[in-house]
Amino acid sequence: MPHDFKFRLQRLLDLRDRATQECKKNMAAALHALLEAQADLHCLQTERQQMNAAWQQALPSGLKPEMAIGFQRCFDKSTTSCELAAKKIEAAKEHESACRMLLDKAMRKQKVLEKLRDRTRTRFNYEASRREQAQLDDFAMLRHSREPKS
Fold first, then answer.
1. Nearest to 120 by CA among 2, 14, 9, 1
2. CA of 69: how far to CAs of 46, 51, 74, 82, in Å?
3. Does the pTM of the predicted model rise above 0.70?
4. Can you give the residue range of the structural domain that contains 66?
5. Considering the domain boundaries, does residue 43 fall inside one?
6. 48 with 82: CB under 8 angstroms?
7. Below-50 pLDDT ranges, the chain
8. What angle do CA 44, 34, 94 make, to 5 degrees?
């Protein structure tokens, strides 16, 4: 009577699978945060370019000192915002890299157990096949020994 294969470390494999799935979620969130930070920087750079273009157009017509000071303040704020956005991108890249390393490590741990499970299943199937063949051989020998000899 054949028995079903049961991997003794299945619970550990399930835990590793959950850990891998969690790492994948974290990786997706990190990539999303990185893309958001890059989009924010792009918007800030576009805004800064538009501000610079407006400054270039206003220069030939002559500016009042208050307007020039206002433009300079806005431009300085824009520069600071771009620098902060660039730092945010760097932090997001570092976080994404850390998540990628954790995901890689979790996947390797899971893969080790999956290979062990597959080898154990192959060994189990081989042993089951060998036992079945031995039973068939015993049955054939028994049947042959009961046949009348002529």
1. 9
2. 21, 13, 9, 20
3. yes
4. 10-110
5. yes
6. yes
7. 1
8. 120
The pLDDT assigned to 2 comes to 52
> Which residue is it, tokens 């824009």?
78
What per-residue confidence (pLDDT) applies to 146? Answer: 82
Q: Please tell me the total count of domains within the chain.
A: 1
Contact call for residues 101 and 23 (beta carbons, < 8 A): no
* Cβ atoms of residues 29 and 100 within 8 Å: no
Count of residues making up the chain: 150
Amino acid 58: pLDDT: 78
Dist. CA 103–CA 82, nearest whole Å: 31
Give the C-alpha separation, 141 to 116, whole Å: 37
Residue 76: give its domain's CATH number: 1.10.287
Q: Which residue has the tokens 């550990």?
A: 12
* Alpha-carbon 51 to chain mean position: 39
| CA–CA distances in Å: residue 54 to residues 29, 40, 72, 78 | 37, 21, 12, 14
